[in-house]
Each structure stands twice: as structure tokens, then as C-alpha cells.
């Protein structure tokens, strides 16, 4: 990346804030591109609340847990495909067009989901949304990094991460707003089409990444954009740095004697270590459990004893709010403490949280109350598997919950406000 690494100090964050009056054009570029992160976060959060109402409308989804899991996970499968082809689209057609294409897919998917008449159509819409999310996850941060001043690049790229968590928080607010509206989940899923359309309009009004333009031989266009991004005294230095960086990249990829290959890169120690660190972080952060919490947060809350859909969404909103607050803190500290320290502090917090969750879940399971036929009969024998079990005396509440999604709690079918635990 041209410009190199910026010095990590507190003034970088203040400089980022000062752009609102010094150079709002830069913030406009960053925020417009970061809407892709908002779409990602919104989809992550909204499906968790919408799923509660989808189960009410489509009985097949309520009866089959694998169908619930498919509705959630098929978007992730689409995102994998979208991300894999996103790099090619970004390089061939530009970062701006890549974002617009991703938004178009997301918009189509949102409309399909909102109009779905059966689970199959809903799944198709989720696939389109996944394609869009995957492509945007590649294009948005890349566009921001290549269109941001070097000194505040870290903070501006962090906007994409902040809007991911902000989108999750917004999704729970939207879910709450439509809990009593006709169509409930259709509105929840369909509203996502609005920010996708807004970003399409904004990106049509913005230029292409200066680095991509320079790479494609459109030097004058690239220089024109750089003059709008950097202060006059820094423009020439940035133009020369960009020129040298792109020329070096072109020479390395076209030279027959020094052609870059995967094998050659892996043989280079610094490149190999950087690849391990980058890919390792991306892979292992998916296994810490936060995605499960965000996708199934209201369902987990209900299994904990809060049967009301509205209460479950309210409590999930707290989780999303804390998540978004953490992103705000990272924007401030990323250029103050540096990437490595911030990462180590975050990983320590993740480890502590996972240990606490493990202990709590283990204690809940091992101390689960036994099930008795007398207490079960008070709730109309809502655990059918218990009635036909060979060893009902060994059953506890956790086993009931695993046996059937109908077991565990009883609530009013109309509003799920009255909560009673299966066993006292």
C-alpha cells in the first residue's frame, strides 16, 4: 500500500475527526463505502429476530431445526462464494463497480426474502444476500484503504468494522420496531434493501479508487482524485509514491525473470509469516462463537427463560450495543496503541469471556432439574419424547430441550408473554 505505515499516536484519531470540517470529501468516500459493512452487520443481526416470526408463519421451519439452520447458514455459504469472486471483480472492473454490483445482489435478495411465500424462496433470497455480503466484504475496506490519507487510514478502514457492529445494533432496533406490525419478518428483512439502494446511488456519484485507476493507466484521473484527498503540500509526494508503488507491482508481475508465484511467495519468510498471521486471524476469529451469538441471540435468550419475542429482542439489543461500543473503542485505539497490542488485548478479553461462558453452560447442564411426570402433566405433556422414553426417571430439563423444540417452556401462543418453566 502506498504511503507506508502511519505512526501510531493519539493525534491520528483526532485528525480523523477533524476531517469533518477540513476535508469532508474524504469522510464522504469512507462512509459511502463503509455502508457495505452496515449491510453485512444488518443481515447478521436481523435474521436472528426474523427467525422467531418466520417459524410462526412457516410451520415447516418451526418443526425442522435443520431448516432454521439452513436459513441462517445459506447466506454464509453465498458469502464465501461472493468473497472468492470479489477479488477478481475488484481487479478487473474496479472497486467502485464491485461495491455497486454487491449492493445490487443484496437489494435483489432483500426483495426476494420480503416477498417469499415459502421457505424455498426465502432460501434463494438468502443466497443472493450472501453473494452481496461476500463481495462487499472484499470491496468496501479495499476502496476505503486506497482512497484514504495515509495518516488516518487505520481509523477510516475501521469504519467498515464499526458499521458491521452498528448494523447489527440497528437490526435489533428494526426488529423491535416491527414486532407488532403486519408482516413482521417481511419488513425486517425487506428494510435492508433501503441502505443497499442508498449506497448504489452514492457510489455512482463517487470516483474510482486512485490506485486502481493508476494501475489501469488512467493517471490523470488518479491524480485528480489524490488532489481532492490530500492537502496541497502532500499531493506531489503521494502521487510519486503511488507511481513508484504501481510501477514496481507491474514490473514484478510482468517480468519473465522475476515473475511472482505462489511458491516463491511462500518461500519468503516475511511474506509467509504475514500470510499465516493474516489468514490465521481471519480463520480463527470465526471460531470464537460471536457469530453464533449474533445469529441466534434471541433464540438463546428464549431458551434461557425469556419466552416473549419482544423481551428476547430487547436483551439481544444489549449484546449488539456492547459489540458496537467495542468497535468504537477500536477506532480510537487502533492508531494510538497499534494493531498488534490492540489485537492481543482483544484476544485476552475473548479468552476470558469464553471461559466464563463455558463454566456457566457447564453448571447449567449439570444442575438441570429432573423431569417428573406430575409436573409435566401440568403443562399438557409438552415433551412428547419424555412420555415414550424407556428411562424417564433419568431425564432432566436439558434432555427435554434437546429432544424437542417444543419442550422447556410454556407461553401464550398469541403473544408469548406469560412464561412458565416446565419444571419447578
Automatic annotation (TrEMBL):
Gene3D superfamilies, A to Z: MFS general substrate transporter like domains
Main localization category: membrane
Annotated keywords: Membrane, Sugar transport, Transmembrane, Transmembrane helix, Transport
Signal peptide span: none
Location(s), subcellular: Membrane
InterPro entries: MFS_dom (IPR020846), MFS_sugar_transport-like (IPR005828), MFS_trans_sf (IPR036259), Myo-inositol_Transporter (IPR050814), Sugar/inositol_transpt (IPR003663), Sugar_transporter_CS (IPR005829)
An example Gene Ontology CC term for this record: membrane
Transmembrane segments: 29-54, 66-86, 98-117, 123-144, 156-178, 184-206, 274-296, 311-335, 342-361
Keyword Transmembrane among record annotations: yes
Molecular function as annotated in GO: myo-inositol:proton symporter activity
Its membrane topology: Multi-pass membrane protein
Domain Major facilitator superfamily (MFS) profile: 29-424
Organism domain of life: Eukaryota
Family, similarity comment: Belongs to the major facilitator superfamily. Sugar transporter (TC 2.A.1.1) family.
Name of the molecule in the record: Putative major facilitator, sugar transporter, major facilitator superfamily
Amino acid at each position: 500500500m502506498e504511503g507506508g505505515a502511519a505512526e501510531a499516536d493519539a493525534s491520528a484519531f483526532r485528525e480523523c475527526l477533524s476531517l469533518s470540517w477540513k476535508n469532508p470529501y474524504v469522510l464522504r468516500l469512507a462512509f459511502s463505502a463503509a455502508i457495505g459493512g452496515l449491510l453485512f452487520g444488518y443481515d447478521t443481526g436481523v435474521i436472528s429476530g426474523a427467525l422467531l416470526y418466520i417459524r410462526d408463519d412457516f410451520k415447516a421451519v418451526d418443526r425442522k431445526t435443520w431448516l432454521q439452520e439452513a436459513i441462517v447458514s445459506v447466506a454464509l455459504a453465498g458469502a464465501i462464494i461472493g468473497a472468492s469472486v470479489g477479488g477478481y471483480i475488484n481487479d478487473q472492473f474496479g472497486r467502485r463497480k464491485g461495491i455497486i454490483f454487491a449492493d445490487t445482489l443484496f437489494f435483489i435478495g432483500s426483495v426476494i426474502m420480503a416477498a417469499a411465500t415459502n421457505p424455498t424462496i426465502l432460501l434463494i433470497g438468502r443466497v443472493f444476500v450472501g453473494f452481496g455480503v461476500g463481495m462487499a466484504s472484499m470491496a468496501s475496506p479495499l476502496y476505503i484503504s486506497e482512497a484514504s490519507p495515509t495518516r488516518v487510514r487505520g481509523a477510516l478502514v475501521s469504519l467498515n468494522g464499526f458499521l458491521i457492529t452498528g448494523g447489527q445494533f440497528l437490526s435489533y432496533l428494526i426488529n423491535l420496531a416491527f414486532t407488532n406490525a403486519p408482516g413482521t419478518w417481511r419488513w425486517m428483512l425487506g428494510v435492508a434493501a433501503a441502505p443497499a439502494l442508498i449506497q448504489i446511488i452514492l457510489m455512482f456519484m463517487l470516483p474510482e479508487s486512485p490506485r486502481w485507476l493508476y494501475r489501469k493507466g488512467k493517471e490523470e484521473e488518479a491524480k485528480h482524485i489524490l488532489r481532492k484527498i490530500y492537502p496541497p503540500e502532500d499531493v506531489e509526494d503521494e502521487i510519486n509514491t503511488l507511481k513508484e508503488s504501481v510501477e514496481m507491482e507491474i514490473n514484478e508481475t510482468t517480468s519473465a525473470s522475476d515473475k511472482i508465484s505462489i511458491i516463491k511467495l511462500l518461500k519468503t519468510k516475511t511474506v509467509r509469516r504475514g500470510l499465516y498471521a493474516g489468514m490465521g486471524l481471519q480463520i480463527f476469529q470465526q471460531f470464537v462463537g460471536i457469530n453464533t451469538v449474533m445469529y441466534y441471540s434471541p433464540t438463546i435468550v428464549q431458551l434461557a427463560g425469556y419466552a416473549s419475542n419482544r423481551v428476547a429482542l430487547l436483551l439481544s439489543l444489549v449484546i449488539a450495543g456492547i459489540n458496537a461500543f467495542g468497535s468504537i473503542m477500536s477506532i480510537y485505539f487502533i492508531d494510538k496503541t497499534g494493531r498488534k497490542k490492540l489485537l492481543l488485548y482483544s484476544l485476552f478479553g475473548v479468552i476470558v469471556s469464553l471461559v466464563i461462558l463455558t463454566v456457566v453452560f457447564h453448571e447449567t447442564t449439570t444442575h438441570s432439574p429432573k423431569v417428573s411426570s406430575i409436573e409435566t402433566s401440568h403443562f399438557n405433556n409438552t415433551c412428547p419424547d419424555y412420555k415414550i422414553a424407556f428411562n424417564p426417571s433419568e431425564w432432566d430439563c436439558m434432555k427435554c430441550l434437546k429432544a424437542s423444540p417444543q419442550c422447556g417452556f410454556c407461553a401464550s401462543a398469541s403473544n408469548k408473554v406469560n412464561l412458565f418453566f416446565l419444571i419447578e
